[in-house]
Amino acid sequence: MGNETTPPTLSVLDLAQVGSGLTASDALRASVELARLAEGRGFRRYWVAEHHSMPGVASSSPAVILAHIAAHTDRIRLGSGGVMLPNHAPLVIAEQFGTLEALAPGRIDLGLGRAPGTDGATAAALRRSDRAEGADDFPQQLAELTRFLDDDFPDGHPYGRIHAVPGPIQGSVPGGVQSSARPAIWLLGSSGFSARLAGALGLPFAFAHHFSAVNTVPALDLYRESFRPSDVLAEPYALIGVSALAADEEKDARRQVLSGALAMLRLRTGRPGLIPSPEEAEAYEFSPAEQDFVESWMANVVHGTPDAVREGLDALAARTGADELMLTANGHTPQARLRSYELIADAYGLGSAG
């Protein structure tokens, strides 16, 4: 069916996964390879997700990784998918992403989530506080961050004399010259809260279909119903994160996806670790409850041969009406993940394999 319809816009979500027998350095070198592959093959954007206290995920510092990726790419949009706003002071994020914008002008996306991206104890350690930020705090934090990025606090505001640098203030001081561009703000979510807020503010919205598939269509409907045109967008624009892995043979794709499923099972049951090898995953003796979890998880991963993955992605795009699919490949080795993106690009005729 995909060959007869307009193909979806494709992007990349990278978790810098660390497989057993591999190091964080291996994972981050692979991230550079992946970003360069994505740029060369015509994927729209490359995002990094913020996670903490997870041995199998090396993306705890998206801004640091993105600065490194910016030095190895030229055109592809780079961003966070996302930065978890409650974990950080808005001024710090404005400074980090203002710096990224200065390093890669016109290429930076600032995707923001309201979840901690980790457990409560780790979140408290990140914030140096036991106070949990509630959903009601997120709009206020977002407004503060936006004002820092735009340098437009009203007169008399306590932060009116504080400026995020690099940022607009550099264009308003004597002799100053500053680009008018700033990072593009996206709201991320896995429920209706951020969908409604993104719509009300006229911002682009990214939904985490890869771990909340049952809520995808309701959240996107809510986003579109809530949407109000803004200076940023005239019409709603929705992206969904999708777990997808292609291999030359279906059985090889399934083996890699099983590794990712076992890693997720261990994470969900309080035993986070490195991404197990396919051999370890196949030898693992799942209890009936664990088997149910794994089968449910794998059912939400679009995997198989390249043609099967394209068919699945096309069907998902048609069912959700998403404007963009952001693919994340969960597998044991960097080679398997890189090969997956190459095969998907081939299936869609993207870019040049050379």
Residue share in helix: 40-55%
Query: For the report, how would you describe the main beta sheet?
Result: 8 strands, parallel, barrel
Give the spatial strand order of the biggest sheet. Answer: 1-2-3-4-5-6-7-9
Q: Overall 3D geometry?
A: globular
Number of separate helices: 12
Radius of gyration: 20 Å
Q: List segments where confidence is low: pLDDT < 50 over at least 5 consecutive residues.
A: none
Give the total of beta strands: 9
**How far is the first residue's CA from the last residue's CA?**
27 Å
The helix-strand sequence is EHEHEHEHHEHEHEHHHEHEH
- Proportion in β-strands: 5-15%
Mean pLDDT: 92
Topology:
Elements: E1 9-14, H1 24-41, E2 45-48, H2 62-70, E3 77-84, H3 90-103, E4 108-113, H4 120-127, H5 137-150, E5 184-189, H6 192-201, E6 205-207, H7 216-226, E7 238-246, H8 250-268, H9 278-283, H10 288-299, E8 302-304, H11 306-320, E9 324-328, H12 334-348
Helix pairs in contact: 1-12, 2-3, 3-5, 6-7, 8-10, 11-12
